[in-house]
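G., before I forget:
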Amino acid sequence: MNANSRQPAPPVEVTDLTCRYGAYTAVDRASFTVAPGELFALLGTNGAGKTTTIETAIGLRRPASGTARVLGRDPFRHRRELAGDVAVIGQETGFADDLTCAETLRLWTDLHRLAPRLELLERVDLAHRAAVRVGALSGGERRRLDLALAVATAPSVLFADEPTTGLDPASRRRTWGLLRELTAQGTAVVLTTHYLDEAAELAGHVAIMDRGRIARFGTVAEITSSYEARITMRPKPFDPIALPALAGRTAVDDGLLTIRTTALQADLHRLLDWAAREGVELADLKAGPATLDEIFAELESEPAPAN
Amino acid sequence: MTALTLAAAETRLILRNRTVLVTAAILPLILGIALMNSPLTGAAQSAGALAAVQLGMLLMFGLFMPITMTLAARRQQLYLKRLRTSPASTASIVAGLASPLALITLLQTAVVLGVTAWETGTAPAHPGLLVLAFANGAITLTAIGFLTASFTKTPEAAQITVLPGMVVLMIGTFWALAPMDGPRGVLRSAIPGAALTELATAAWDGGLDFASTAQPIALSTLVAVAAALVAARLFRWQPRD
């Protein structure tokens, strides 16, 4: 963003961001922008560089090169000024174990010079645990308390680093609901997650990080459609030579037939016709776009990018 | 304001951890009183010298060591990382964590020096200067503790990393018991612990006008500010990778 521009700065703007730990490059020239009210998801395996990207964007680390700007400012230099507008949900909550839920929330609002907002405990279903020390909470309850703290400051930007990891399905859905509420109010959200379904459910745009670089960018549909779809089954009886002509590639492993295809509907149609005609049972039949695991596996099998 | 908020939370944490509370409150107290009858300080030239050593030891065991360990432990628990995402400044975080410890040490000092006054039949000539000596020592030792925590990876490592600071503080505290004039005296005042001894001795025994206390105060403040600035630059707010 040009300093002289009349356009307001985007809530999050990461440009050619590179972060290193000694000789190890954790983030390699990553770039993305998040608009107000947008939920942007960073996906990737452990060690892909997601958390380092977030830690740099919240001002905990200085980049080796490139920039991360939040609300138009350098988060490392303007950490305190940005703290009122930026909320963070970390992988680890960082609460003091001997403070209660209510005291923790109160401490947080006091630090932000806000009126106490204990009603937020009710929104994350922790009102009945208000007087319980944080150390006695379950992992899921801690994550929910973290969410209450994030919401308490009505942030313009929220960085949520794997906020649903370890949550039960109901808590996960509740978290999704709160994230949706925030984006509806105009909060820009950067979410890191291992779950493609979560990204598909919540995110406008997605970036998949692999070995520090952004390897894929787009909507979930765009990304999955750029990979071959999979059809898997165990035909009984099975004679590979008798298979119909298919657009996709076939492979057999321990009786499991896998077809990778760019023509999912047509190949599936041919297979069903063939099975009906030949009297073949298609046991364990599954068909669909590539899963995140499959995409990660393909990315990892690609050679490392040259520096 | 922010430091007070953090100090209130830290006080709760100390009060709720019985082991920490007992260790922080009782042990330095025993040490301070035991010093009264030790051969080392029993031969002290004056009640002021005895009070100065007691104050130095109380601050070392009650503030310097605990603040180093507290910072390392809170970092390990990711509490400091959490605070770093709040509007709290570096100074208010350190002050917020140190002030309950300083308050406990102040109460211990009042008890120990009260016993010293009763035992020796003396009283501080300048009580205000004694308070200033405590404040000066508390600020200096908090800064040195912050600096020590900056190269302390874990709370366990703090048991070792505090040793150089303890040695320097003891050198400063005991060396300053003897009078020293000229440039060497000026240099000595810069050693952490020395200014504290000079001020406390003068506060108890008299014989030092308020104007001449400016030198140890200025030098020790300079050392504290330098230590805090270096620490702020080196300190990591989350566990090392």
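The mean pLDDT of chain A is 89. The longest helix of chain A spans residues 169-184.

More on Monday.
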